[in-house]
Prior knowledge:
This protein is 44% helix and 29% strand. The chain is of the alpha+beta class. It has one domain (9-202): Chemotaxis protein chec (3-Layer(aba) Sandwich). The radius of gyration is 16 Å and the shape is globular. It starts with 8 loop residues before the first helix and ends with a helix.
Amino acid sequence: MATFHPIEERELDALREISNIGAGHAVTALHQMTRRVITLEVPAVNLVPFSEVAHRLGGLEEEVVGLFFRVYGGSRGNMLVVMSRTSAEHLLTVLFDGDGPKRPLGDMEISALKEVGNILTSSYLTAIGSLLKIPLIPSIPAFSMDMAQAVVDLLLIELAEVTHQALVIQTDFATRDKTFTGHFCLLPDPGSIETILTAIDRLQKKG
């Protein structure tokens, strides 16, 4: 298992700034998709132990929607986009112009969530890749809805052998009348966090 050096505050600040740039790209894409004004902010970026990921998603028994992507390119890994069931329903209400989602979620709702997850993931990875000169490409997403611990176990248990840390990026969504939160969890292959942090150091030295 790879050993990572402790992440420094300046590196977290850089990752937070990069994430906000990605959020800005996502805002444009979401507006084109929904014709609604949706703002995104990234108030927190933390590197946490793999075992604590579910806690960061609202608690082990919080019902969540999870979208799992593999990341290919210059820095490989996996990404999990997670939001609570309530947040997912708020988002679907925005996507379907005020119509509440069905229970259980149907194919159309799941497809819409996958599309939003793809937009968010692609925007975030493009922001990182463009600034750090590292090509990052997401796969087609896999969908899951269950308690947070079950989603993490189901989608990420195979990664426990190769990684022990996740980069957890909180993302706050806001529309005119609703505010809700989602999370990106970037789980790198061994050495990928080091690749990203080395690129950040190089970028900061140039600056």
